[in-house]
Write a structure and sequence with these properties.
The chain is an alpha+beta fold. The protein is built from 6 helices and 3 strands, in the order ααααββααβ.
Length: about 100
Amino acid sequence: MFRRDVQQIKDLVLRNLRVQGLETPLLQKRLVESWPEIAGPAIARYTTDVKLYNQTLYVCLSMPALRADLSMRRQEFIQRLNAHVGAQIIADIRFS
């Protein structure tokens, strides 16, 4: 009998991305695109731009009062976003 090394396609694709150095950029893109889902529709409505630079997520908001409120919930958003992508991608969030 032949013994086959059966692996899931998901594992093979992730390993290939890791070898090519594309896993982190893919996770970063998923994290930026997940901001409206994690923040919710009310906050997403006032979000004008979301960028990631040096493990810091920069979120531009059009409502100053919302900036102050979200700054107090910064750690909650960091944990939820990192959990959503399944890796430690961001360490800080800046609201402007």
